[in-house]
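Thread title: Can someone regenerate the structure for this chain?

I was given the following input by a collaborator and told the matching structure tokens would be attached. They weren't. Posting the sequence so someone can regenerate them.
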Amino acid sequence: MFRTAAAFLAFGSLVAATAEAAEPLRLENASLQVEVSEDCQIRVTDKRTGATWREVELPLPWLKIEGAQARLRPLDSHDSARKLRWAGVLPGIRVMPGDNRKDAWLPAEVEFELSLDAEQPDLKLTFIPKFEGQWREVFYTRCFSASADDAYLVFPHCEGALIPLRRDRPGYLSLPKDNIYSGYGPYCACLGMVRMNAGDGVLMVFETPESALYEMTDVTLDGAPISIPRVSWRGDKLRFTRPLAVTYTFSDRGGYVALARHYQRHFKRWGFQRTLRQKAADNAAVEQMAGGGVYWLTGNAADVLSMVRMMHADGIDRAIIEIAAPYWHVQERYENELKEMEGAVPEIRKLGYVVSHYDQYRDAFARDPQASSYIQMNTELHPDGIVRQEDGQFRHGWPPGFVANPRASLELARKNIPADLKRFPFNGRFLDCIGTCPFWEGEDWDERHPLDALGTRQARQELLQLANRCGLVVGTEGGIDCYLPNLHWLETPMSMVRWTVGSMPLPGWQPVTLKPDYELNIATTHRIPFYSLVHHAEVVSTWRWEDGFPRVPQYWQDKNLWSVLYGGVPMYFLDRENFERWRPQIAQTHRYVCDWVRKIAFAEMVDHRFVSPDRQVQETVFTGDIGVVVNFGKDPYTLPDGQTVPGRSYRTFTGGNVREYAAPPVAEMSY
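Best answer:
Regenerated them for you:
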């Protein structure tokens, strides 16, 4: 299937024979000195610390060659503009023309552009395609890295994880190849590496994330076995028509917190940041939901209304009420139930809550009168609005459905959402899948409605904007952050999905036998609040619906503490029987968690640190010099200023150098 590496080797030999020895070319600003060697390898010296970051070769194992960058002299140098350009190749998988259309490994000619920001410690590497034809993927086979014992990958999956780069260290986790922006991968368009003791690091920021992928690659550096990310890009419908770019930001101190600050700077540069305060100015329902838990309530109108009234009687003064029912998907089956809901929805709103229901425009199903209503969504789009793959076959989605063309879905939503709101006065809407599904799945080869990955991203953004214009606050699964300008709450980031979903079958309230990986969701070993350090002031985050608090009551208090530490809110999936069973605990958690979260709901998280070496005691700080110290351990912990934090509890504080501490508003209880 694949051609040999001969093309690369021959190309490399030609370059080696014609190149002349030369001094490295340099770029420089106040923070960085950048050198580009004769073989176009990049070396960065941080002038603030003297630390050096050099690119490591990441061989593609199946090619059995070390790298595939051309050994060419730069074409020109623009030191005054802090920019260098040179010609070269990237290894790529090309679809060969002809009847059999076999894939072949070939060199893809590109022009490299390296530019250094005049003020910021940002080095941007751009790949300008100079090749034609159809290509599945092209690879950049170098990455900056460190081999130190304390070097970690900053992995912005869900809230975030710290993973040792060294494969021989405790806590190392193997990660499969995945997309940038993925439900099982990064929720932010970046990957980072830090040296924990020195605090310095490098952040890879993906300027063209729609098609970007990463693959952790095993190499040996300074005698140490490490795993670092190799970057690649997939063709958008097998084409590369625009430049691809990565910006490397070098931080001299502050560890993962500093990398989060830098990523936030890039996020603002892209024009994506929109705070909850700004969103509240457009929709008063933001005030009603901020700091309140998320409650998926299932049952008929009487059951739902009964649970909501009990919540209100228990002092739960703000919440997102999500009606988990199939009524809206196949309305002709449920006319009586819908008539009852017409009266229930206004009553819920009168109690001061945001009221929403499940909706989605990602999957479409074939009409089947015998099928469950949960797999009868968007039947109007089947078959003519389904995404067709390159081979003409439908793209499979949630079984037994298929992925709907995002543009066709948007048109259906333009009809459905306003019609729904004429009958039911919802002020919220949960639009599933948007925050977790990759862009490439919307690539449509159907000539009647062609679409590419970038068009998929834009269509889904327009869907959120439509819901906003209809007066709705909007939540979604996952947390792909380019959608945040039009989102108000996220269901997932508090759960580490890659290690939890396998333990969580339907329905969302039944007890489960947890798989060993679930421990990563709760333990202090890997978790960091990277996402909240960037986005806390923009969106309310909670746990996944199947990972609700009563689902695993043995970890209820752990989730309370993580929610308090990160400023997230509780999540429940309940029928009436289970609500009544857990009613005292739900009411207590509202006070224990939400009283605090309400105070910082609109605030930015400005710092996080491990207070104790074993990470059992951690601290977050928010704007206004307010924060919280959480003790996940069993034993009391005494802080340097003499304050004691009991085991399995927390203390909030106000003030900077001199703090005033406060205990939780209610005592801990057994779950």
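Residues 272-299+351-491 form one domain.
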